[in-house]
């Protein structure tokens, strides 16, 4: 009987020990940081598109502190490699994953369907799922304002634009830039060259040089590096940056302004929703009011009185009094695409595949 009592005590001690260990493990699991995955199409060090996305990621890290752990994957190609990168992030325990390039979207959707317990956020696309959102900003609003500045500073009215791919996102930006330029100089033109790459410093520079050789005196861009702007500066011409503040990077006032992104203002609330269980799929398109987009400081070379005009137009957009694609719009063959009393719908803006009057180039 005494031996039985000792055995029972030993079993009780062992059981309590195992229970305590299990409780400790549960506590560690509960207190473990929430894992966030990000995949970038290029290196954040390029001071362009991925750089600004990483600034948003860093803003989230600063906001949440040790409550989150970010797993970054850089230079991920827009092919099956994207699917493998996403799967790796899932295997690493990431509960929400952000993918920053347009051509990732089919792979994001594929992996999202295979992993219903993970949230996926795709930037700049249109596909979605119960556990996959798409998000972007109304950068066309900043493109318009930068077009105003470009036309004001151009001695010839001949502006150039180095574009990555002929997709709605890029075409919409070129159109907005042109409309802004023509609001200041009705005879302004915007000549477009395509590189068919998001990130290739050499090709981007070549595109800008080809435009400059035609007598163009302001270079704008939808590319990931500073090379088009640098090419313009080296020729003594003006540039419009994109993504990051190119004026600071190049240390040149010839960069008149840079339309910029505030990705952290989207990422932070989405991570928070994922953490507290309130995340829901959405198609998000934020504008000035959400601080998703903004302009860098304007070059001191731009007249102060004109800067006030730009700021007044920005206020109109922010207040909802006016937007870029309102009123009569003709395409670059002279056909009226929108009547004077009409406003372009989000759907039409998101699928636009034609150039407005004033653009020299093809969408093919």
Q: Main beta sheet, described? A: 6 strands, parallel
* Structural category: alpha/beta
Overall number of strands: 16
Number of helices: 12
Structural summary, described in words:
By secondary structure, the protein is of the alpha/beta class. Helices cover 43% and strands 18% of the residues. The N and C termini lie far apart (92 Å). Residues 1-28 have low confidence and may be disordered. Helix 6 (168-184) links the parallel strand 6 (158-163) and strand 7. It has helices at 2-31, 49-64, 80-91, 105-114, 139-153, 168-184, 201-212, 227-234, 246-250, 264-276, 304-318, 346-350; strands at residues 34-39, 68-73, 96-99, 119-123, 132-137, 158-163, 189-194, 218-222, 238-240, 255-257, 259-261, 283-286, 293-295, 329-330, 336-338, 359-360.
Could you give a short description of this structure?
The protein has 364 residues and is α/β, with parallel strands linked by helices.
Task: Show the helix and strand layout.
Layout: H1 2-31, E1 34-39, H2 49-64, E2 68-73, H3 80-91, E3 96-99, H4 105-114, E4 119-123, E5 132-137, H5 139-153, E6 158-163, H6 168-184, E7 189-194, H7 201-212, E8 218-222, H8 227-234, E9 238-240, H9 246-250, E10 255-257, E11 259-261, H10 264-276, E12 283-286, E13 293-295, H11 304-318, E14 329-330, E15 336-338, H12 346-350, E16 359-360
Parallel strand pairs: 1-2, 1-3, 3-4, 4-5, 5-12, 6-7, 6-8, 7-16, 8-9, 9-10
Antiparallel strand pairs: 11-13, 14-15
Helix pairs in contact: 2-10, 3-4, 5-6, 5-11, 7-8
């Amino acid at each position: 009987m005494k031996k039985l009592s000792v055995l029972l005590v030993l079993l009780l001690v062992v059981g309590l020990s195992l229970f305590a260990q299990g409780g400790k493990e549960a506590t560690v699991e509960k207190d473990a940081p929430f894992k966030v995955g990000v995949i970038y199409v290029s290196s954040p060090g390029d001071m362009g598109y991925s750089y600004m996305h990483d600034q948003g990621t860093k803003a989230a890290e600063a906001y949440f502190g040790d409550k989150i752990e970010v797993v970054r994957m850089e230079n991920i190609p827009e092919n099956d490699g994207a699917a493998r990168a996403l799967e790796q992030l899932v295997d690493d325990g990431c509960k929400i994953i952000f993918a920053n390039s347009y051509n990732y979207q089919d792979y994001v959707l594929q992996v999202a369907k295979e992993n219903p317990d993970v949230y996926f956020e795709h930037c700049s696309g249109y596909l979605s799922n119960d556990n996959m959102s798409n998000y972007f900003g109304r950068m066309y609003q900043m493109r318009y304002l930068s077009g105003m500045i470009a036309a004001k500073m151009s001695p010839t009215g001949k502006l150039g634009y180095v574009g990555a791919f002929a997709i709605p996102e890029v075409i919409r930006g070129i159109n907005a830039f042109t409309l802004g330029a023509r609001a200041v100089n009705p005879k302004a033109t915007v000549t477009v060259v395509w590189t068919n790459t998001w990130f290739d410093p050499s090709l981007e520079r070549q595109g800008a040089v080809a435009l400059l050789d035609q007598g163009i005196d302001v270079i704008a861009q939808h590319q990931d590096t500073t090379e088009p702007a640098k090419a313009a500066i080296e020729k003594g011409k003006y540039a419009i940056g994109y993504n990051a503040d190119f004026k600071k990077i190049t240390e040149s006032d010839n960069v008149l302004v840079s339309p910029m992104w505030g990705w952290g203002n989207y990422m932070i609330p989405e991570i928070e929703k994922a953490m507290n269980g309130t995340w829901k799929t959405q198609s998000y398109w934020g504008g000035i009011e959400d601080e998703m987009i903004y302009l860098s400081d304007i070059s001191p070379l731009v007249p102060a009185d004109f800067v006030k005009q730009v700021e007044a137009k920005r206020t109109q957009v922010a207040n909802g009094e006016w937007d870029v694609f309102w009123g009569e719009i003709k395409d670059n063959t002279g056909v009226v695409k929108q009547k004077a009393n009409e406003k372009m719908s989000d759907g039409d803006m998101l699928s636009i595949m034609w150039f407005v009057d004033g653009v020299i180039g093809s969408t093919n």
